[in-house]
Design the sequence.
């Protein structure tokens, strides 16, 4: 039960419990003897009954009973009456065990097992459940079992929904009831049951949960449900293509890399290998992106069977970001020519979200690739400086607009009721300003509103969110980091919400073929977001922030230079996502905390030496096993990067030993900590 | 008198205490005194039933009780003592009884248990319940929950009193912000109660300042920025106040301090959670309020108290020399003696015998001498037997009409309690509706009660007009119809300790018995000299759980 203080035992109670333990021990050893000798006589089974009625947690006894039942059933040759008697006896034992402790996993499981045999009547089960759920309304065992019984009896989801109405009505602090409600509604809405249209039903649900929240804002159960509702309002089940690179209608310049030396101010893309990445960014993780689901129609030769790769953790075939490399320098000369590329996503079915929804609305985009015969101006081996040689980008500039078409609303969404619902919630929660959770919810609602509306007041919303996050950081210091992250997300969304906002941070790097450089330094960012709008960025300055990890940057496939100096990165594991950036050449991670912790403790799941199966076979690994063991996190990241310039000073890990290790792992490195390496 | 069977003589003839009248306070005294072990108690009642002014009666009995007039005592005399004749004075005035469907009443004549002192219900955390538990008299009564309580207005709408977290959540009349404000206020009160219950803890934060506690409750509610609607619910629907708190100048003597207001809320809040099988703050005894005095009387009888009903006391016997109290003469003519005497509030000394008394004798009798009453406050009561219910699907419910809610001149709150056959007080499909309001004079009180009646129920319409009225007003159809109605005004008499002769209180204007129980306990202390009331003797005979009844047990 909930909210009942535990009392210290009185001496007589302790004595009683000791006596009980002695009795249990005796029973237990007798029972174990029976079990080992496979004795299933009536006396032996009765002994297990006795044991379970005292201690329902004795799961071995439950298993023994299963064996005993199987044994009995094998003897009686399917006389239905006898079968029923045997199974009914099991149900009776479970019931009395549950009366002793209705949170016994073994007992509930045994009951399920008996019922799955299919000979018992299930009509009684809901009655029994009502009894247990009255005793403890939040008992999740009972709720789980209830779902099992409902499925077995084919009781309608509508009836179950009504049951949650009753349970929530009698006590709205019932997480289990709210949770079951969300499960039932999800199913009813997905299969579009009669009267369950999202645009009607979800506003009704908002009204219900508002009552709970406003009655007692300190009760969390309602807030969880509200969060779920908001998710239902903002997100659509079917995956959508959020953005791509290149964008629809854009014109990209590609450098051929070898020709007559004419000088151009054009920003060029493309790598040494004569290919450029094609990036698809979905709103949720999908699988099944391939040359059959995504077709390319272009005059560029040799791209018939493009290989699409998910930009995600190793071995995962599910990702928001998918990339393919389009070749533009093939055997025949192609300089000075323009090529139209038509990409059709979802041409044939196969792109499926991790929740199992199909990418249904096929989407087509066209861009032009212009291959110039310009020479890359700077020497391949020059040091890249983050200080000089940057030009401001004119906000009105045509090529800027071509790069970043930022407002792309999803026409597929029936967004009217969603916008109305969110606007209503915002008005309401503005009236509940005193509470932490009220502010947080308001911030989330505003974020949702800014996301699904394409009005010009987005910036106003983001400013309000930023203020709310600041308030929350001050109010609730124990969740400071969470609010800080939200603040960063909002800030980045704001920066990327319009070309005006973005242009203030955009530069051209003269020394790097006018590469597009985005400077987001000194913004006290703790998290990266809005990457889908920044796919075109080639140089990214994130220095002087509070980043713990580079998660999110993996989508920026054009990135060649990254400045992460003066952040809070604590290990190379936190840079794991950079391994996906095939064009990354310059990395500055100086003045971080690398080496303080070899494991990124800010994440629950991270790579460790043990998760890498190829560990022993590696060449470098076999040459200097002790260093690899010592710097394993650096090893796994740096090994996959193709860096020419690395800055590592100002970290705990930095030092002569580490430098020599780096030289071994990254043989192509030219600049280390600002010094040119002798080759 | 001659048709009564002859009274058997009582034996013994001397007691420590004689109590006349079996109302709630008298019965508590009898039970407490008998349980103390050292006192012999004789408990008399002139009526053929238990409960006096707190009884539950059939309709004819109720009618005749309300209409009973003061009987002139038979002239009597005695040689050894000075005899002072007693008069049984009626507490009721402006009694008005109307029967609309005599045949229906005839048909169910014995299924009614109608309270004289209604509307009355008990809070689960009431003093009377504590006392029942302490005395063990809880074994003789079964309670059931009052299902709902409402605040009404002249439009006929009944709004739920959102008195708990769950009720606020489900309420349809409050806006979200009002829900928030009300719940916040409840939480504040709860925090305050929790912190004041652990007063020794120095770290406990004072939630409410001393200054706040002394200020008028209504001002404190305004300070908490509660809107008028919620203030009205708290003041009249939860704290159960009678007088208009918004016009403090006019009724300053009735202004409730925050401290008292918080106490009343505390009673309500603790009531809601006291018994696991009670779903609300209020409950009502099966078979009527008359069961309560009976329960105490049964407890007293178990402990050795002697009971004689139908036994009026005709005169007091005083010592000729000292003028001190000696005993009483019964209607049977027998003389019984005791140390002390406690009388029902309706018993007084005949005015004609006053001039002949000496000052000493007057001193002995001071409790009985009618005085110029300081507060002229009375209580107007109404009883309606109705077909149908004031709220669909709800049988037992409390309705409160705050001051000015029925008509602009309404000075005091009108409380209405509807009870149904589930409580064994009336036949199925019929409800007993009790109304009351505190008033300065009979007319004012009856006007308010009648106004509430006309808002809630439909008058009987002659057969030929009925169809027209239905067509004319559809909503009227759902209103219940009155079958029988009684209106009366009851005097409020406070009990008094007078040394040898004391008196008990009449039913008061409250919904519960707290003040009556308090005054009875105080009187007991004065009579018995600080002897502990019901020293722990709860035998805790576990009651059988019989479904929806509320078991009151510790």
Sequence:
């Amino acid at each position: 039960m909930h909210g009942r203080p535990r009392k210290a035992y009185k001496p007589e109670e302790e004595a009683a419990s000791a006596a009980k333990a002695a009795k249990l021990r005796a029973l237990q050893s007798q029972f174990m003897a029976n079990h080992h000798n496979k004795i299933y006589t009536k006396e032996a089974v009765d002994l297990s009954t006795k044991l379970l009625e005292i201690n329902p947690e004795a799961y071995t006894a439950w298993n023994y009973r299963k064996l005993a039942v199987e044994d009995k059933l094998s003897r009686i040759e399917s006389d239905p009456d006898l079968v029923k008697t045997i199974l009914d006896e099991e149900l009776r034992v479970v019931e009395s065990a549950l009366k002793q402790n209705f949170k016994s996993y073994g007992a509930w499981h045994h009951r399920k097992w008996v019922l799955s045999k299919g000979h018992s009547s299930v009509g009684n089960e809901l009655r029994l459940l009502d009894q247990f759920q009255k005793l403890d309304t939040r008992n999740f065992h009972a709720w789980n079992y209830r779902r099992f019984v409902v499925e077995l009896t084919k009781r309608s989801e509508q009836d179950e929904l009504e049951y949650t109405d009753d349970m929530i009505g009698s006590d709205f602090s019932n997480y289990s009831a709210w949770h079951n409600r969300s499960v039932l509604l999800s199913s009813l809405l997905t299969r579009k049951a009669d009267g369950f249209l999202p645009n009607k039903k979800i506003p009704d649900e908002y009204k219900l949960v508002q009552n709970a929240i406003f009655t007692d804002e300190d009760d969390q159960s309602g807030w969880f449900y509200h969060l779920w509702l908001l998710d239902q309002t903002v997100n659509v089940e079917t995956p959508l293509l959020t953005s791509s690179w290149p964008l629809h209608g854009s014109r990209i310049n590609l450098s051929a890399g070898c020709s007559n030396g004419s000088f151009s101010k054009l920003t060029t893309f493309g790598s040494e290998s004569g290919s450029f990445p094609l990036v698809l960014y979905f709103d949720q993780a999908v699988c099944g992106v391939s040359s059959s689901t995504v077709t390319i129609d272009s005059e560029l030769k040799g791209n018939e069977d493009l290989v699409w790769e998910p930009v995600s953790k190793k071995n995962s075939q599910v990702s928001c970001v998918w990339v393919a490399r389009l070749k533009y320098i093939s055997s025949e000369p192609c300089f000075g020519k323009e090529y139209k590329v038509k990409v059709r996503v979802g041409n044939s079915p196969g792109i499926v979200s991790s929740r199992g929804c199909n990418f249904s609305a096929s989407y087509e985009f066209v861009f032009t690739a212009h291959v110039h015969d310009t020479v890359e101006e700077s020497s391949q081996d020059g040091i890249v400086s983050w200080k000089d040689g940057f030009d401001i980008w004119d906000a009105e500039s045509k090529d800027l607009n071509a790069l970043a078409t930022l407002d792309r609303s999803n026409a597929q969404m029936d967004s009217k009721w969603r916008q109305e619902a969110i606007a209503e919630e915002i008005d309401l929660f503005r009236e509940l300003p005193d509470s932490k959770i009220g502010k947080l919810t308001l911030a989330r609602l505003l974020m949702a509103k800014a996301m699904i509306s394409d009005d010009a007041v987005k910036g106003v919303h983001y400013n309000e969110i930023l203020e709310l996050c600041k308030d929350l950081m001050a109010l609730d210091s124990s969740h400071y980091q969470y609010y800080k992250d939200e603040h960063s997300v909002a800030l980045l969304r704001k920066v990327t919400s319009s070309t005006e906002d973005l242009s203030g941070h955009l530069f051209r790097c003269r020394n790097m073929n006018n590469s597009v450089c985005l400077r987001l330094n000194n913004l006290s960012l703790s998290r990266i977001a809005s990457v889908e709008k920044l796919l075109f960025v080639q140089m990214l300055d994130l220095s002087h922030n509070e980043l713990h990890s580079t998660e999110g940057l993996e989508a920026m496939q054009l990135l060649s230079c990254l400045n992460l100096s003066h952040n809070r990165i604590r290990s190379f594991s936190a840079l794991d996502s950079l391994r996906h950036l095939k064009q990354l050449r310059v990395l500055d991670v100086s003045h971080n905390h690398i080496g303080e912790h070899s494991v990124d403790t800010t994440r629950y799941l991270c790579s460790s030496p043990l998760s890498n199966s190829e560990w022993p076979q590696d060449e470098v690994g076999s040459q200097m096993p002790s260093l690899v063991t010592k710097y394993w996190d650096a090893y796994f990241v740096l090994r996959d990067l193709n860096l020419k310039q690395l800055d590592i000073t100002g970290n705990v890990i930095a030092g002569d030993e580490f430098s020599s290790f780096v030289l071994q792992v990254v043989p192509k490195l030219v600049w280390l900590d600002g010094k040119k390496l002798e080759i | 008198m001659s048709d009564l069977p002859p009274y058997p003589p009582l034996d013994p003839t001397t007691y420590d205490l004689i109590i006349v009248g079996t109302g709630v306070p008298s019965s508590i005294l009898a039970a407490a005194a008998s349980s103390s072990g050292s006192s012999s108690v004789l408990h008399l009642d002139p009526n053929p039933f238990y409960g006096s002014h707190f009884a539950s009666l059939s309709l004819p009995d109720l009618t005749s009780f309300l209409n009973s007039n003061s009987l002139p005592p038979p002239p009597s005399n005695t040689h050894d003592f000075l005899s002072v004749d007693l008069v049984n004075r009626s507490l009721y005035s402006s009694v008005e009884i109307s029967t609309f469907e005599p045949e229906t009443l005839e048909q169910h004549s014995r299924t009614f248990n109608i309270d004289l002192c209604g509307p009355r219900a008990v809070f689960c955390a009431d003093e009377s319940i504590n006392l029942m538990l302490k005395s063990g008299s809880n074994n003789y009564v079964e309670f059931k929950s009052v299902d709902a309580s409402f605040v009404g207005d002249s439009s006929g709408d009944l709004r739920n009193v959102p008195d708990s977290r769950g009720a606020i959540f489900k309420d349809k009349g409050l806006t979200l912000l009002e829900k928030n404000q009300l719940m916040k206020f409840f939480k504040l009160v709860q925090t305050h109660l929790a912190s004041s219950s652990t007063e020794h803890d120095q770290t406990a934060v004072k939630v409410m300042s001393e200054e706040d506690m002394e200020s008028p409750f209504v001002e404190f509610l305004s300070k908490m920025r509660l809107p008028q609607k919620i203030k009205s619910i708290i003041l009249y629907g939860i704290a159960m106040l009678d007088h208009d708190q918004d016009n403090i100048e006019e009724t300053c003597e009735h202004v409730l301090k925050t401290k008292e207001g918080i106490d009343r809320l505390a009673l309500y809040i603790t009531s809601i959670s006291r018994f696991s099988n009670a779903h609300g703050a209020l409950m009502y005894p099966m078979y009527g309020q008359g069961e309560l005095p009976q329960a105490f009387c049964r407890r007293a009888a178990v402990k050795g108290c002697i009971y004689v009903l139908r036994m009026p006391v005709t005169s007091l016997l005083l010592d000729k020399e000292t003028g001190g109290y000696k005993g009483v003469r019964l209607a049977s003519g027998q003389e019984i003696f005791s140390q002390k005497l406690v009388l029902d509030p309706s018993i007084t000394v005949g005015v004609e015998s006053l001039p002949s008394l000496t000052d000493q004798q007057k001193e002995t009798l001071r409790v009985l001498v009618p005085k110029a009453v300081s507060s002229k406050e009375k209580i107007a009561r109404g009883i309606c037997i109705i077909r149908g219910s004031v709220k669909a699907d709800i049988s037992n419910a409390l309705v409160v009409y705050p001051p000015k809610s029925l008509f602009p001149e309404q000075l005091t709150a009108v409380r209405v309690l509807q009870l149904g056959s589930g409580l064994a007080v009336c036949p199925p499909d019929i409800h007993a509706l009790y109304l009351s309001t505190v008033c300065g004079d009979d007319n004012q009180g009856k006007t308010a009660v009648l106004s509430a009646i006309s808002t809630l129920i439909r008058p009987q319409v002659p057969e030929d007009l009925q169809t027209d009225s239905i067509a004319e007003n559809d909503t009227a159809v759902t209103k219940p119809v009155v079958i029988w109605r009684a209106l009366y005004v009851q005097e409020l008499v406070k009990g008094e300790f007078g040394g040898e002769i004391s008196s008990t209180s009449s039913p008061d204007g409250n919904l519960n018995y707290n003040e009556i129980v308090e005054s009875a306990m105080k009187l007991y202390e004065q009579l018995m000299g600080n002897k502990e009331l019901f020293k722990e003797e709860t035998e805790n005979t576990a009651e059988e759980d019989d479904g929806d009844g509320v078991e009151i047990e510790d």
